[in-house]
Amino acid sequence: MGIGEEREDKEEGVMATDFFWSYTDEPHASRRRQILSQYPQIKDLFGPDPMAFLKIGVVVLLQLWTATALNDAGWLKILVIAYFFGSFLNHNLFLAIHELSHNLAFETPAYNRWLGIFANLPIGVPMSVTFQKYHLEHHRFQGVDGIDMDIPSETEAHLVTNIVAKAIWVVFQLFFYALRPLFLKPKPPGWWEFVNFAVQIGLDAAMVHFWGWKSFAYLILSTFVGGGMHPMAGHFISEHYVFKPEQETYSYYGPLNFLTWSVGYHNEHHDFPRIPGSKLHKVKEIAPQYYEGLESYKSWSQVIYMYVMDRTVGPFSRMKRKAKKSE
Asked: Signal peptide position in this chain (predicted)?
């Protein structure tokens, strides 16, 4: 379906039945070249965040300590603390892993891998190494059919067609996000993934052995609720779901950037993936004319509400492009 067709559907209040197909290259590479030609000083922002290790260490230790402190707590208390506290910490760590997938803590890639495995510990499920393998393709081949696994599958899009289905999809979106590439584009695991798996299962087993199932359940619940109907999880939708056809990446400039490694600066991030989140705001300050004309958000919660309630928006609301022969 072309963009013009989609606009007709939105005017009629009908959900699209195909993705938005773009016949141009993704916008970030060209904008990056333009900005660097005009503001070469932006290159000074490239490189690791020296505070990343400390920030990750504090969150990991705080979350693991919280889990052990809840070993005898009631289930309602565990659920409440998981939603209103632990979910923020685990989602912060998920986005720390996103940061590390771009090698933005250390110059040496292996050190970033090890720190990613450490950041993975409170999440409860080994994912940091596998995430990097697919996420870097999302940057190199944004929207490319069959390569960018950030885009929902045809099956998801055809099943999630009404408000109730979209609400359920949002609750379980972390599962779709994690499992989609394993079904659509499975890759053989490497040595680092076995290390990630062994370390994570070791921590999970130790948590159950020494503190019991409730402590481990707190970690899993923190991951699950933090990736579903949760303010921080709004970034999964806000980043690339097309609410306006002429734009395929959106930024968010609200306060939750403080807790999410500034992933809300998503146009800036895709334009300059070598700049750590702590400095992405400087890109917009240096080159404001390239970003002020773009649509952006101030609330991730509002994005989730819009996605669920707008009958014209759904999993098909993503920009796709055909793979080039060389890809």
From this structure: none
- Please state whether 7 falls in left (phi above 0), alpha (psi between -120 and 50) or beta: alpha
Query: Would you tell me how many other CB atoms lie within 10 Å of the CB of residue 140?
Result: 14
Per-residue pLDDT at 76 exceeds 90: yes
For residue 295, give Cα distances in angstroms to 46, 247, 249, 290, 298: 25, 8, 9, 11, 10
Q: Are 32 and 274 in contact (CB under 8 A)?
A: no
Would you state the structure tokens that stand for residue 101, as one six-digit string? 């997938």
| Dist. CA 250–CA 318, nearest whole Å | 12
Helix (H, G, I), strand (E, B) or coil at 252: strand
Alpha helix segments (H runs only) across 102-140: 109-120, 128-140
For CA atoms 257, 259, 261, 266, give the dihedral sign.
negative
Specify whether the CB–CB gap between 250 and 296 falls below 8 A: yes
pTM: 0.92
Longest dimension (CA), the chain: 60
% residues pLDDT > 70 (the chain): 94
Three-state secondary-structure class, residue 148? coil
Q: Say which residues have a Cβ less than 8 Å from residue 309's Cβ, sequence separation at least 6.
A: 163
Q: At 324, is the pLDDT very low, low, confident or very high (cuts 50, 70, 90)?
A: confident
